[in-house]
Amino acid sequence: MLTRLSLRIRIFLFFCLLALGGLVVSSVALWFSYVRLDNPELLTAFVFAEILIGFGMLAMVAGVWLLFDDNIAKPIERLSAELRARAHAGVSTDMDLQAARYLGDLAPAAAGLADRLSDKTLNIAEAVAVETAHLAAEKQRLTALLTEIPVAMLLASPTHKIVLYDAQAAEVLAQICHPRLNASLFEYLKPGPLEDAYSKLVKTGMDVECKLISIDENQSYSARMKPLGDAPGYMLIFEDSTARISPDAARPLVYDFELLHTAAEDALENRALPDLCFVVFDTETTGLLPHKDEIVQIGAVRVIKGRIVDSEQLNMLVNPGIPIPAASTKVHKINDRMVQGAPDIAKAGKVFHQFARDAVIVAHNAPFDMAFLRRHADDMGVEWTHPILDTVLLSAVLFGASDTHTLDALCERLDITIPDALRHTALGDALATAEALVKMLPMLQARGMTTFGAVLVETRKHGRLLEDLN
């Protein structure tokens, strides 16, 4: 059971045991001395002596423990976190050897080993980079070819989850709601015609012509469903949907082929961290009081299979319905003129709710941002029942509760740079938080926290941090 406790707590318990043992030994010694003297008049003196010894011993043990905690336990905890960051998160910043100066040669030895491994990793990375550049060029050619086809095309898994979509398909899906990898096609299209066409495809193994209807029944599409050969799933081509895209505009191909082979979903707490879909978000507000201030901007980005999907972002200004104080504008640079004509929180919140559907919501100090959204849940017509993960708590789990856990401090530890132009913008802070999450996921797995439930158990131990922040 003790192995589940952190190093600092185990050391604290060790010193408590020392203090208790000292008190027992001194009490027994004084008792035997009193018995041998056989003088009842000295009882008060012996009791007073034991009290003085007890307080003195407790003070001495507490003082030694504090010194040991500051100079040994905390540096060991910090050194471990820094090594994991270098090993699993690709962090290359110098290790803080000064903080671990009382650990003897341990810190320099660890730094030397980390540098040696980094050099080997760098050599391997250079070799991989050559192949990566070649693959990137091939991908660029493939993307150019596919996006020149004047029809919308996407790939879906056997469970009708989106695995790939091109720019034209993105336009088709966006008429209904934001296009997203791993989203169910049933969020966009009526299930009946789609399932009937897929059943026919599975039975015949040949292309199937079908008529699909949008979920809101406002649009219909002539489509063709094609098998993917030996791969599971299918290709869906919207044959009567041509994209109205400028010839000079970017035409991204968004995909993750691993989603084709996604296993049956377990209960959320049992699912492996790489299998989760995360939506990382941040807000800018008129002030710091969730019960009366309002949101003026929402920024969000999706993380799938442990990587940020750059093309799947939200960046919305929100009309707060109240004047934006000059002090707040000074921080986030958003003024009353900029939010004129922007959607109110009821509409913007509903868009974000859809964007985060079937995902774990992640934020830095999530209770603050979620309080604004939950206050307006009735106006949005939604329920905020998403599972929540807080990067403040993840930072505490990995780097120790005694460290600073601001977004800036976390980014500095993980070698993440937030451009000045993006700092204190909702999307900029959301992207920085997403980068931190992506780097922390393998570090959590290296600590044995491989499932969402295991991570939640550890973060709940540090819930007090959020209470202090809010």
Give the key terms.
470 residues, alpha+beta, six-stranded antiparallel sheet, five-stranded mixed sheet, 49% helix
Question: What's the topology here?
Answer:
Blueprint lengths: L6 H31 L5 H46 L17 H43 L3 E5 L5 E4 L1 H8 L16 H14 L3 E6 L6 E8 L6 E5 L15 E2 L21 E9 L9 E10 L2 E11 L8 H7 L3 H4 L5 H11 L4 E4 L2 H10 L1 H4 L7 E3 H9 L7 H7 L12 H21 L5 H9 L2 H7 L1
Parallel strand pairs: 7-10, 10-11
Antiparallel strand pairs: 1-2, 1-5, 2-6, 3-4, 4-5, 7-8, 8-9
| Helix/strand order, N-terminal first | HHHEEHHEEEEEEEHHHEHHEHHHHH
β-strand percent reads: 5-15%
Mean pLDDT: 85
Quick one: overall form?
A: elongated
Using only CA atoms, what is the Rg? 29 Å
Structural class: alpha+beta
Strand line-up across the major sheet = 3-4-5-1-2-6
Biggest sheet, open or closed, and with what strands and sense? 6 strands, antiparallel
Individual helix count: 15
Estimate percent helicity: 40-55%
- For the secondary structure, the number of strands is 11
Distance between the termini: 32 Å
Low-pLDDT parts are 241-250
In summary, what is this structure?
The protein is α+β, with helices and mostly antiparallel strands and 470 residues long.
Structural summary, described in words:
- The protein is built from 15 helices and 11 strands.
- The strands form 2 sheets. A 6-stranded antiparallel β-sheet has the order 3-4-5-1-2-6. Strands 9-8-7-10-11 form a 5-stranded mixed β-sheet, sandwiched between helices.
- The protein starts with 6 loop residues before the first helix and ends with a helix.
